[in-house]
Amino acid sequence: MSKHKFYLAIIALFHVSTPALSQEHNASDSHDMHQTEDIEFGASLGYAYLKEEQKDGINIHLHAMKRLSDEGLLQHVSVGLGVETILTDEAHYAAMLSVAVHPWKSLILSVSPGYEWANHDGTWESSYATHLEATYTFESSNFHYGPVFGYSKTADTQHYTAGIHFGMHFD
To answer: Which residues touch 167 (CB under 8 Å, ≥6 apart)?
Structure first.
């Protein structure tokens, strides 16, 4: 899939769903801080651009996060684990610990230190990586969804991602 077609698909999805998202979000404005004692399982699907390799591919990211408290300053912080793969002609994987801050309404900013593994010309390479993500979510019952943008850097490589995040809360 070319990146232009992928971007058009994301824009079309948000264009079609914007009225429903706006109504749902306005109804939940008084509940900006979703249930804070639950666990959130999330998935992101999107486009990834690997800068040094000058390749693009599909990005799949999965994570489990938990808020640290239901009150005080720690209600704005989540911790968890994540995994990621980028589907190109060569394998790319990552595993990470995540810390997220919920500074305002449905905005989520996260930093995730971890390791990336890549198979280049039949040789596996691994290195420390730092992932940064920004997500804005819209609530719908126990689900939330919205755009996500990410950046990852190792000593030798970096990649950028854009996609759609889906999450579900469990008590």
So the answer is: 40, 41, 42, 43, 137, 143, 144, 145
Cβ pair 148, 44 in contact under 8 A: yes
Residue with tokens 């998202």: 21
pLDDT in tens, 61-71: 999 999 999 88
Q: What angle do CA 13, 14, 16 make, to 5 degrees?
A: 70
pTM more than 0.90:
no
Provide the residue count of the chain.
171
- Residue spans of the domains in the chain: they are 3-170
Domain 3-170 bears CATH identifier 3.40.50.970: no
CA dist., res. 144 & res. 167, Å (int): 5
Per-residue 3-state assignment (H helix, E strand, C coil) for 80-113: EEEEEEEECCCEEEEEEEEEEEEEECCEEEEEEE
Lookup result for tokens 């990146």: 3
What's the whole-number average pLDDT of the chain? Answer: 85
